[in-house]
Structure formats: C-alpha cells, structure tokens
C-alpha cells in the first residue's frame, strides 16, 4: 500500500521501503479542455545538486536532450519525452539507482515545466491531476505518491518533489512549489 504524501511532508525511504535500491519516478498530468491554439507539452526534468543546493555541472541537468547522469553508472536516467501527455498513468519517467548515485549528489530535484508556456499562453492552472509517484523497481510496487492539489494559475514551472540524503539515508520531500518564468526560473535557482 503506497503512502500518500501531503505538500511539504518528508519521509525516510529506509523506513517506509527498507532495501529500496532503485526507484522508478513516474510523473503524470492531464490538461483541461482549453483552446490556447497550441497543444500542451509538459516536460519532466531532474536537477542533481551538491550540498550547497547548486547544479554540479550542466551535465547534471537531466531532461529530454540529456537523458542520463554523467557518472559512469548512469545512475539517473530519463526515459524520454512524451509530447502529448495523453492516456492514463505516467506521462514521463525517471529511474534512479540510489545505490549508485555519486556522493557529490546530495539532492535530486524532480520538476515539470510547460514547453514554450509564454508563447502558447499556457500555465499550470490549465493542468489537472498532476502527480509524482515513486515505485520500487525490484518489486514494481508503488511506495509513495504525491497528488498536486493546488491551483497554479500563473505558474509555468513546478518543483514536484525531491530526493535528498540525510544522516546516510535517502529521504523524499513532497515540495509542490510553483514558479513563473518556466524552465529558466528553475535554472536560475540552481545555477
């Protein structure tokens, strides 16, 4: 039975999923029926941060044009861009091998942005049923889920959740923070 997180809630992965070694992070959403003249293209991205909560290098920004982390084990893998978000379930997926993430990576931030949101007149107020979930790769069981319930009527970028190290273990935080300025706002925060 998966644990449903509330905004701001933090949990230890060691306590709720002992032995978890690799996580499948699924992100999903639906768009409202609105006519902006353009299709919606939402993109999941991952920022691999150091202890100062800054991007370690450009290659530590994982997205549709840079699908794997730069470490030899490729411990973080984006499974590709979904251009429509149509259908049930996960729209985009990131797999994290928690055992192999290099020690300089202290925080893994999972985000969603709307591609060309300003040009297309789109924002997260036009998106519903957004969620992030963490699944144990070995057992295929959903461990955690965070369903976004806020209405972000002007925001074009969201920090959905973050995995972070504390006291030698991985923890997850359901962030649910919205930003105006799309992907650039997130890049500005972490560079």
From TrEMBL:
Write down the superkingdom of origin.
Answer: Bacteria
**Which InterPro entries does this one have?**
Stress/Tellurium_Resist, TerD
Coiled coil spans? none
Q: Which Pfam families does the annotation name?
A: TerD (PF02342)
Q: Where is the TerD domain?
A: 1-190
Q: Give the family from UniProt.
A: Belongs to the CAPAB/TerDEXZ family.
* Descriptive protein name: Stress protein
- Native organism: Cyanobacterium stanieri (strain ATCC 29140 / PCC 7202)
Q: What is the lineage of its organism?
A: Bacteria, Bacillati, Cyanobacteriota, Cyanophyceae, Oscillatoriophycideae
């Amino acid at each position: 039975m998966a644990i449903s997180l509330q905004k701001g809630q933090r949990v230890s992965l060691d306590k709720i999923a002992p032995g978890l070694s690799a996580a499948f992070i699924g992100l999903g959403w639906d768009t409202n029926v609105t006519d902006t003249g353009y299709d919606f293209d939402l993109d999941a991205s991952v920022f691999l941060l150091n202890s100062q909560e800054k991007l370690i290098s450009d290659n530590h920004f994982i997205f549709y044009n840079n699908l794997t982390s730069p470490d030899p084990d490729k411990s973080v893998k984006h499974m590709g861009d979904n251009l429509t978000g149509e259908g049930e379930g996960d729209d985009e997926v990131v797999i994290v091998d928690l055992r192999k993430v290099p020690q300089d990576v202290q925080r893994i931030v999972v985000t969603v942005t709307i591609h060309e949101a300003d040009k297309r007149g789109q924002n997260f107020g036009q998106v519903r049923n957004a969620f992030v979930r963490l699944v144990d790769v070995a057992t295929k069981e959903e461990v955690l889920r965070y369903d976004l319930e806020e209405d972000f009527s002007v925001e074009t970028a969201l920090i959905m959740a973050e995995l972070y190290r504390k006291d030698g273990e991985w923890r997850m935080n359901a962030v649910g923070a919205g930003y105006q300025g799309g992907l650039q706002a997130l890049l500005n925060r972490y560079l």
